[in-house]
Amino acid sequence: MANKVEVKELLDAGVHFGHLTRRWNPNMAPYIYMERNGIHIINLYKSAAKMQEAGDALAKIAASGRKILFVATKKQAKEIVAEQAEKASMPYITERWPGGMLTNFVTIRKAVKKMASIDRMKKDGTFNSLSKKERLQVDRLRAKLEKNLGSIADMSRLPAALFVVDTTREHIAIKEAQKLNIPIFAMVDTNSDPREVDYLIPSNDDASKSIGKVVSYVADSIVEGLSERKSNKDAKKKEEKASKEGKEAKAPKAKKEKAEVPSKDAEDKKAMKEAKKDVKLESKSETLDKAKSSNEEE
């Protein structure tokens, strides 16, 4: 379970500041507390509850071993999201969203593989055999791919969820995730439509302090889920090891007990041997009796 969210901390970070009242989205009305100086104020108690809900859901996804893709291309969010995503060992997009990133994932994977093939060329010496112009072109291509796709190089399949900062700006990413039924977690300001996402966090998505507070909480929830997964794996390994050792300990004892109890075949063989012995003794006694009677007659 994710950590409890303190309303005071959200207040200090300025999470409650919304957009100008003339730029609001009516669907955000349930999450707006009041209006002050022409600006909407977000209800932080509802924000805290939604953050807790989103944190619990993300922790479960992380515990299952699946990936969560962070998306934030706005200037004030780039560094924060990159840092927190790396802390949680999750892929992220902080440059331009590549069209078809999710809906045409196969092509994106080819571009990532192209980057890996360039790295192999540099290692095996093929790169040095190219002309100076070709080397420059390859370097430029590698730099471009690294800038746009370097952060998702380890994402071998579609993510299990998307975490977005500013749904209005990242509308293409939202549409692609909706087409593929990928759950969307997002920071939603008063000018955005909350119906587009599955888990919304009503919050100020423009101030870096507010973004930092929400994204760090999300990253901590994911880290918690990953540590839970690791502890479960360790516990399972210990259980398997103990079970194996128990079986090995019982095996010699069972063998010994088996050796002590004679088998049916062994009993039959023993009975046959004794029967043959009795037959031999009987025939021997009969021979002796015959010899004795013949002596008496003579």
Explained architecture:
The protein is α/β, with parallel strands linked by helices and 298 residues long. It has helices spanning 7-12, 44-63, 75-87, 105-124, 132-149, 171-179, 208-260, 264-297, and strands spanning 17-20, 32-36, 39-42, 68-71, 92-93, 161-165, 184-188, 199-202. A five-stranded parallel sheet has the order 5-4-6-7-8, sandwiched between helices. Strands 1-3-2 form a three-stranded antiparallel sheet. The relative contact order is 0.15.
Unreliable stretches, pLDDT < 50, 5 or more residues?
A: none
* Number of DSSP strand runs: 8
Strand content: 5-15%
Q: Which percent bin holds the helix content? A: 55-70%
Largest sheet: 5 strands, parallel
User: What does the average pLDDT come to?
Assistant: 84
What global shape is seen? flat
SS class: alpha/beta
Region (Disordered): 228-298
InterPro entries: Ribosomal_uS2, Ribosomal_uS2_bac/mit/plastid, Ribosomal_uS2_CS, Ribosomal_uS2_flav_dom_sf
Protein name: Small ribosomal subunit protein uS2
Family: Belongs to the universal ribosomal protein uS2 family.
How would the blueprint of this fold be written?
Layout: H1 7-12, E1 17-20, E2 32-36, E3 39-42, H2 44-63, E4 68-71, H3 75-87, E5 92-93, H4 105-124, H5 132-149, E6 161-165, H6 171-179, E7 184-188, E8 199-202, H7 208-260, H8 264-297
Parallel strand pairs: 4-5, 4-6, 6-7, 7-8
Antiparallel strand pairs: 1-3, 2-3
